[in-house]
Protein backbone atom coordinates (compact mmCIF):
# COMPACT_ATOMS: atom_id res chain seq x y z
CA UNK A 1 0.00 0.00 0.00
CA UNK A 2 1.36 3.38 -1.03
CA UNK A 3 0.45 6.92 0.00
CA UNK A 4 -0.31 8.80 -3.21
CA UNK A 5 -0.61 12.60 -3.53
CA UNK A 6 -2.67 13.75 -6.54
CA UNK A 7 -3.14 17.33 -7.69
CA UNK A 8 -6.11 18.34 -9.84
CA UNK A 9 -8.02 15.37 -8.40
CA UNK A 10 -11.52 16.80 -8.77
CA UNK A 11 -12.04 16.04 -12.46
CA UNK A 12 -10.70 14.39 -15.60
CA UNK A 13 -7.46 12.44 -15.44
CA UNK A 14 -6.83 13.37 -11.81
CA UNK A 15 -10.18 12.03 -10.64
CA UNK A 16 -9.88 8.85 -12.71
CA UNK A 17 -6.40 8.28 -11.28
CA UNK A 18 -7.66 8.77 -7.73
CA UNK A 19 -10.47 6.30 -8.37
CA UNK A 20 -8.23 3.54 -9.73
CA UNK A 21 -5.72 3.88 -6.89
CA UNK A 22 -8.49 3.94 -4.29
CA UNK A 23 -9.90 0.67 -5.62
CA UNK A 24 -6.40 -0.81 -5.37
CA UNK A 25 -6.32 0.11 -1.69
CA UNK A 26 -3.66 2.82 -1.78
CA UNK A 27 -3.97 5.72 0.68
CA UNK A 28 -4.79 8.98 -1.10
CA UNK A 29 -4.15 12.66 -0.58
CA UNK A 30 -6.47 14.36 -3.06
CA UNK A 31 -5.94 18.02 -3.89
CA UNK A 32 -7.93 20.65 -5.73
CA UNK A 33 -9.36 24.16 -5.64
CA UNK A 34 -13.06 23.27 -5.33
CA UNK A 35 -13.70 22.40 -1.69
CA UNK A 36 -17.23 21.03 -2.13
CA UNK A 37 -16.27 18.81 -5.08
CA UNK A 38 -13.22 17.59 -3.18
CA UNK A 39 -15.30 16.74 -0.11
CA UNK A 40 -17.77 14.75 -2.22
CA UNK A 41 -14.91 12.84 -3.84
CA UNK A 42 -13.42 12.11 -0.42
CA UNK A 43 -16.72 10.58 0.70
CA UNK A 44 -16.91 8.48 -2.48
CA UNK A 45 -13.35 7.18 -2.30
CA UNK A 46 -13.47 6.54 1.44
CA UNK A 47 -15.58 3.48 0.62
CA UNK A 48 -12.37 1.91 -0.69
CA UNK A 49 -9.45 3.35 1.26
CA UNK A 50 -8.14 6.05 3.60
CA UNK A 51 -8.38 9.50 2.03
CA UNK A 52 -7.16 12.95 3.08
CA UNK A 53 -8.01 16.12 1.17
CA UNK A 54 -6.19 19.43 0.73
CA UNK A 55 -7.75 22.54 -0.79
CA UNK A 56 -5.28 24.84 -2.55
CA UNK A 57 -4.41 26.42 -5.89
CA UNK A 58 -1.09 25.11 -7.26
CA UNK A 59 -0.45 28.58 -8.72
CA UNK A 60 -0.20 30.06 -5.22
CA UNK A 61 3.14 28.99 -3.72
CA UNK A 62 2.24 29.99 -0.16
CA UNK A 63 -1.04 28.06 -0.32
CA UNK A 64 0.87 25.02 -1.54
CA UNK A 65 3.44 25.18 1.27
CA UNK A 66 0.81 25.79 3.95
CA UNK A 67 -1.30 22.89 2.71
CA UNK A 68 1.54 20.37 2.60
CA UNK A 69 2.87 21.54 5.98
CA UNK A 70 -0.62 21.05 7.44
CA UNK A 71 -0.56 17.31 6.73
CA UNK A 72 -0.58 15.20 9.90
CA UNK A 73 2.72 13.38 10.44
CA UNK A 74 1.16 10.03 9.52
CA UNK A 75 0.29 11.45 6.08
CA UNK A 76 3.70 12.95 5.27
CA UNK A 77 5.25 9.63 4.24
CA UNK A 78 4.34 10.27 0.59
CA UNK A 79 5.36 7.49 -1.80
CA UNK A 80 3.95 8.85 -5.06
CA UNK A 81 3.26 12.36 -6.36
CA UNK A 82 1.02 12.70 -9.41
CA UNK A 83 1.42 16.24 -10.79
CA UNK A 84 -1.81 16.34 -12.75
CA UNK A 85 -3.10 19.88 -12.14
CA UNK A 86 -2.83 22.05 -15.25
CA UNK A 87 -4.83 23.91 -17.85
CA UNK A 88 -5.14 25.19 -21.40
CA UNK A 89 -6.61 28.61 -22.10
CA UNK A 90 -7.39 30.04 -25.50
CA UNK A 91 -6.43 29.00 -29.01
CA UNK A 92 -5.22 32.20 -30.66
CA UNK A 93 -2.01 33.34 -32.33
CA UNK A 94 0.54 35.09 -30.15
CA UNK A 95 -0.37 38.45 -31.69
CA UNK A 96 -4.01 38.14 -30.57
CA UNK A 97 -3.80 36.08 -27.38
CA UNK A 98 -4.90 37.24 -23.95
CA UNK A 99 -1.87 37.67 -21.70
CA UNK A 100 -3.89 36.44 -18.71
CA UNK A 101 -4.28 33.11 -20.55
CA UNK A 102 -0.49 32.87 -20.85
CA UNK A 103 -0.11 33.57 -17.14
CA UNK A 104 -2.70 30.93 -16.23
CA UNK A 105 -0.93 28.25 -18.29
CA UNK A 106 2.60 29.06 -17.18
CA UNK A 107 1.59 29.53 -13.54
CA UNK A 108 -0.41 26.29 -13.44
CA UNK A 109 1.43 23.94 -15.79
CA UNK A 110 5.00 24.95 -14.93
CA UNK A 111 5.36 26.97 -11.75
CA UNK A 112 2.53 25.11 -9.99
CA UNK A 113 4.16 21.78 -10.74
CA UNK A 114 7.42 23.07 -9.26
CA UNK A 115 5.71 24.58 -6.21
CA UNK A 116 4.14 21.22 -5.33
CA UNK A 117 7.16 19.12 -6.23
CA UNK A 118 9.78 20.93 -4.16
CA UNK A 119 8.46 20.20 -0.64
CA UNK A 120 7.45 16.66 -1.56
CA UNK A 121 10.85 15.95 -3.12
CA UNK A 122 12.43 16.96 0.18
CA UNK A 123 10.25 14.42 1.99
CA UNK A 124 11.11 11.71 -0.55
CA UNK A 125 14.85 12.43 -0.44
CA UNK A 126 14.83 12.10 3.35
CA UNK A 127 13.71 8.47 3.01
CA UNK A 128 15.58 7.66 -0.24
CA UNK A 129 12.49 6.49 -2.11
CA UNK A 130 9.53 7.81 -4.04
CA UNK A 131 7.95 8.20 -7.46
CA UNK A 132 6.94 11.40 -9.27
CA UNK A 133 4.52 11.24 -12.19
CA UNK A 134 4.26 14.42 -14.27
CA UNK A 135 1.39 14.84 -16.72
CA UNK A 136 2.73 16.49 -19.85
CA UNK A 137 1.09 16.28 -23.30
CA UNK A 138 1.82 15.30 -26.88
CA UNK A 139 1.77 19.08 -27.38
CA UNK A 140 5.31 18.95 -26.01
CA UNK A 141 6.38 16.78 -28.95
CA UNK A 142 5.17 19.05 -31.75
CA UNK A 143 4.22 22.71 -31.53
CA UNK A 144 0.99 23.65 -33.28
CA UNK A 145 -0.17 27.06 -34.48
CA UNK A 146 -2.28 29.09 -32.04
CA UNK A 147 -1.24 26.84 -29.16
CA UNK A 148 2.33 28.07 -28.82
CA UNK A 149 2.28 28.96 -25.13
CA UNK A 150 0.41 25.81 -24.11
CA UNK A 151 2.90 23.72 -26.10
CA UNK A 152 5.76 25.61 -24.46
CA UNK A 153 4.35 24.96 -20.99
CA UNK A 154 4.14 21.23 -21.67
CA UNK A 155 7.61 21.17 -23.23
CA UNK A 156 8.74 22.66 -19.93
CA UNK A 157 7.15 19.72 -18.10
CA UNK A 158 9.20 17.34 -20.27
CA UNK A 159 12.39 19.23 -19.42
CA UNK A 160 11.54 19.37 -15.71
CA UNK A 161 10.87 15.62 -15.71
CA UNK A 162 14.26 14.98 -17.31
CA UNK A 163 15.97 17.26 -14.81
CA UNK A 164 14.20 15.61 -11.89
CA UNK A 165 15.37 12.20 -13.11
CA UNK A 166 18.97 13.43 -13.31
CA UNK A 167 18.78 14.89 -9.81
CA UNK A 168 16.76 12.20 -8.04
CA UNK A 169 17.71 8.78 -9.37
CA UNK A 170 20.61 8.52 -6.91
CA UNK A 171 18.08 8.96 -4.10
CA UNK A 172 15.96 6.02 -5.26
CA UNK A 173 13.22 8.28 -6.65
CA UNK A 174 11.60 7.37 -9.97
CA UNK A 175 10.31 10.02 -12.39
CA UNK A 176 7.71 9.25 -15.06
CA UNK A 177 6.64 11.73 -17.74
CA UNK A 178 3.22 10.98 -19.28
CA UNK A 179 2.23 12.52 -22.63
CA UNK A 180 -1.50 12.02 -23.36
CA UNK A 181 -2.89 12.68 -26.82
CA UNK A 182 -6.53 13.69 -27.35
CA UNK A 183 -8.46 12.82 -24.18
CA UNK A 184 -12.14 13.71 -23.87
CA UNK A 185 -12.40 15.57 -20.56
CA UNK A 186 -13.32 19.16 -19.67
CA UNK A 187 -9.97 20.21 -21.18
CA UNK A 188 -11.40 21.75 -24.36
CA UNK A 189 -14.40 23.27 -22.60
CA UNK A 190 -12.00 25.15 -20.32
CA UNK A 191 -9.75 26.12 -23.24
CA UNK A 192 -12.75 27.59 -25.08
CA UNK A 193 -14.12 29.42 -22.02
CA UNK A 194 -17.12 27.15 -21.58
CA UNK A 195 -18.13 27.03 -25.27
CA UNK A 196 -19.40 23.43 -25.26
CA UNK A 197 -20.30 23.42 -28.95
CA UNK A 198 -16.79 24.40 -30.00
CA UNK A 199 -15.27 21.98 -27.48
CA UNK A 200 -17.33 19.12 -28.91
CA UNK A 201 -15.78 19.61 -32.35
CA UNK A 202 -12.37 18.64 -30.94
CA UNK A 203 -13.64 15.09 -30.31
CA UNK A 204 -15.96 14.74 -33.32
CA UNK A 205 -15.55 12.01 -35.95
CA UNK A 206 -13.28 9.63 -34.04
CA UNK A 207 -13.00 7.87 -30.69
CA UNK A 208 -10.80 9.89 -28.34
CA UNK A 209 -9.08 8.58 -25.27
CA UNK A 210 -10.95 8.79 -21.97
CA UNK A 211 -9.51 9.77 -18.61
CA UNK A 212 -9.51 6.16 -17.43
CA UNK A 213 -7.10 5.22 -20.23
CA UNK A 214 -4.48 7.59 -18.83
CA UNK A 215 -5.23 6.50 -15.26
CA UNK A 216 -4.60 2.88 -16.29
CA UNK A 217 -1.21 3.85 -17.70
CA UNK A 218 -0.28 5.79 -14.57
CA UNK A 219 -1.34 2.82 -12.47
CA UNK A 220 0.90 0.52 -14.49
CA UNK A 221 3.89 2.84 -14.05
CA UNK A 222 3.35 3.19 -10.30
CA UNK A 223 2.64 -0.49 -9.64
CA UNK A 224 5.50 -1.87 -11.76
CA UNK A 225 8.22 -3.79 -9.88
CA UNK A 226 10.58 -1.59 -7.93
CA UNK A 227 13.40 -2.39 -10.36
CA UNK A 228 11.34 -0.91 -13.23
CA UNK A 229 11.28 2.82 -13.94
CA UNK A 230 9.06 4.01 -16.81
CA UNK A 231 10.77 7.23 -17.85
CA UNK A 232 8.31 8.35 -20.54
CA UNK A 233 5.03 7.15 -21.94
CA UNK A 234 3.15 8.66 -24.91
CA UNK A 235 -0.48 7.67 -25.43
CA UNK A 236 -2.54 8.48 -28.52
CA UNK A 237 -6.07 7.46 -29.41
CA UNK A 238 -6.07 4.99 -32.29
CA UNK A 239 -7.12 7.70 -34.77
CA UNK A 240 -4.31 10.12 -33.89
CA UNK A 241 -1.03 9.81 -35.79
CA UNK A 242 0.83 12.75 -34.22
CA UNK A 243 -0.15 15.84 -32.21
CA UNK A 244 -1.66 17.70 -35.20
CA UNK A 245 -3.07 14.78 -37.20
CA UNK A 246 -6.33 13.02 -36.31
CA UNK A 247 -8.20 10.91 -38.88
CA UNK A 248 -11.90 11.60 -38.59
CA UNK A 249 -14.78 9.77 -40.25
TrEMBL record:
<protein>
    <submittedName>
        <fullName>L-allo-threonine dehydrogenase</fullName>
    </submittedName>
</protein>
<keyword id="KW-0560">Oxidoreductase</keyword>
<dbReference type="InterPro" id="IPR020904">
    <property type="entry name" value="Sc_DH/Rdtase_CS"/>
</dbReference>
<dbReference type="InterPro" id="IPR002347">
    <property type="entry name" value="SDR_fam"/>
</dbReference>
<dbReference type="InterPro" id="IPR036291">
    <property type="entry name" value="NAD(P)-bd_dom_sf"/>
</dbReference>
<dbReference type="Pfam" id="PF00106">
    <property type="entry name" value="adh_short"/>
</dbReference>
<comment type="similarity">
    <text>Belongs to the short-chain dehydrogenases/reductases (SDR) family.</text>
</comment>
Amino acid sequence: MKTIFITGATSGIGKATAEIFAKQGHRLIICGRRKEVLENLLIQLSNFTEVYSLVFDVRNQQEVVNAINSLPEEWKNIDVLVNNAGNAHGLEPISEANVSDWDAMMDGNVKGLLYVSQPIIKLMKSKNSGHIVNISSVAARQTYANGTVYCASKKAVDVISEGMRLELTEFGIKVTNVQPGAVETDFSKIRFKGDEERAATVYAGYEPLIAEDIADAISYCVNAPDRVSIAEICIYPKAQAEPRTIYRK
